[in-house]
Write a structure and sequence with these properties.
alpha/beta; 9-stranded mixed beta sheet; 3-stranded antiparallel beta sheet; 15 helices; binds S-adenosylmethionine; binds iron/sulfur cluster
Amino acid sequence: MNTICSALTNKYNIAGPRYTSYPAVPHWTRKPSSQEWENHIKKAYQVDATENGISLYIHLPYCESLCTYCGCNTRITVNHHVEQPYIDALCKEWDMYLSLLPDNPVISEIHLGGGTPTFFSPKNLERLIQYIKARAIIHSQHEFSFEGHPNNTSYDHLATLYDLGFRRVSFGVQDLDPMVQETIHRIQPAENVTRVMNWARALGYTSVNLDLVYGLPKQTVQSITTTFNHVLLWKPDRIAFYSYAHVPWIKPGMRKFTEDDLPNAETKRKLYQTGRDFLDANGYYEIGMDHFSLASDTLYIAFKNKSLNRNFMGYTTTNAQLLIGLGVSAISDTFSAFAQNQKTVEDYLRIIHSNEWAHFKGHVLNEDEKNTRWHIRQLMCHFQTQWPAGDQIEKMLITNKENIREMENDGLLVLSQNKIEVTEMGKGFVRNICMAIDPLLQESNQPLFSQTV
Ligand SMILES: C[S@@+](CC[C@H](N)C(=O)[O-])C[C@H]1O[C@@H](n2cnc3c(N)ncnc32)[C@H](O)[C@@H]1O
Ligand code: SF4
């Protein structure tokens, strides 16, 4: 068991990227033109997609009510008439991508994220997925997954998506304590989770994930203990245990509670430690950052056989290099370039309906960035990285010599001539280790990122 001492947490709890991409979004500076973007897509398709297929991320932004702790791109409404026009725009955007490809693509991964995908009716979700599948080939090893809110996921949602090939579902739980739920404006009785878990299992979903968050307002060691005691009875295949990212300058909803409601750094560390102890004692393995799974789950198997991958959707067992993001704020990744869609629904719909790419931000990677990305991915997915003599990482090891030596003295990593290995203790600080080899972090000292712990 790994006990994290509070001095280390305090020392390393600094603002930093989550590295679902490299460079991280705030560091994007070279947005490709429409023509360049189309060339990046065509090239990525040619180089990798015929072999590994493509990944699709579809952002469904609507939620009926705002959880004040939420850091996601959402649009709050109870008007369900918004569903149809939004799905029409997604289909149109998909057509724009298809028009660039020489044949129907092989899809190896679809993830419906949000917002709340289960805000949409099962019929509308079916229309969307059928439309996408109509001009695609589905990979024999495909992974289709979606995020469901336990309060509004119906049996019909689960059954419809199961019939369309979905076998993975993730439910947001966050915390079961009534006081915490009231403070984050998310009233969600445990019975609602039990109900959707039972339905998912009965239908044959092979991987059910629950999201939990530590560091939420009003959370205590006692409340998180009660939450874990309950959650473990459900025996989810995976648990995402996120550190609460407090970014009120981006998400004003977070100002609905006061900073005094938030646990201090020491309590936050104890919350994390309590959760980890529960996970360790109940057969869950730590897979990269924030993620835990049972040994039977494909995520653990991929971690063990070193095929784990990381992209904007988080950790994944597929290895497609071309990720197409559809919908408001969705990010696409061709491996050589990134592009992010407009963040408001109105802008997104308007631009897509005028037959243009809805990107407002992007980046084309240079060779040094590709190299750093490779090392960061190795560290995030496999807790180690190696390099040949003369690799550009060596410059960073010199620039950040003292910082890295300190991490080594603190027992977080072992550095040898051509290798960094993250220790058991260092796993909780893998973001900090990645930051030490990230040249782009040398320049900025603005509040761009949430805290690492
Ligand atoms: C799109 S939501 C999940 C689906 C659905 N909307 C729900 O809330 O159940 C994605 C997940 O991101 C995590 N999350 C959202 N805001 C966060 C924040 N500020 N800090 C850490 N995790 C956060 C939560 O665990 C949440 O379940
Ligand atoms: S946590 Fe989920 S339901 Fe709540 S506002 Fe965020 S995306 Fe919507």
